[in-house]
Write a structure and sequence with these properties.
By secondary structure, the chain is of the alpha/beta class. Helix content is about 40%, strand content about 20%. The chain has ten helices and eight strands. The strands form two sheets. It has a six-stranded parallel beta sheet, sandwiched between helices. A two-stranded antiparallel ribbon has the order 7-8. A hairpin with an 8-residue loop joins β7 and β8. The chain is globular, with a radius of gyration of 18 Å. It starts with 7 loop residues before the first helix and ends in a 9-residue tail after the last strand.
Amino acid sequence: IRKTEPWNHQKIAYWFAYPLEATLLAEDMGVGKSLTAVDLVVNWNCMTILILCPTSVRGVWRREIERHAGRPIQVSVLENGSTAKKAQVATGALRMGAALRQPVAVVCNYEAAWRSEFGEFSLSVDWDCVILDESHRVKSHNAAVSKYAAKLAKKSKRRLCLTGTPLAQSPLDLFGQFRFLDPGLFGTSWFHFSNRYAIKGNPHIPQQITGYKNQEEL
């Protein structure tokens, strides 16, 4: 099912991600990652979708879904109010979607998503898909939002990361993103990951990943 005809690079991204449960689409800004994401959730037949994104682009997701979705998707953009209010609005949207048998996409900014009431709510839902827009926002292994994303991964059937800068500061920025996508790749321990893969102590270069080994060797 498709409403907007994609460009060739979007078709390649779509077919790369379609058979997978977890995917990182690391593409430049402006190439149309959101169209690919919308086509994926439509054709995955997702009914419950959570999109975490920077505050400034929450409204963009409503427009992109309405513009590109090949079937109706109810979009609940959580813009104002406390985290308790956001949880209340999202709960109502999911209930209405279930009653109407219509997919629902809940859009929340990173700063609010992990906090108290909304964090508890979102971790109580079995999501068909969770999308991290600008996924490098969860790169810091010890940040509250990164730890929250790791928990959220366990509540989602499919996981999708979108970013133009997966390595914003260092190759080690991959840890938080892949802990969300597939903890089986690098594990869930920052201590073991950094000790195994990082070159440390050189003041002239950022920490770098030295190479890849199977998880069994960690």
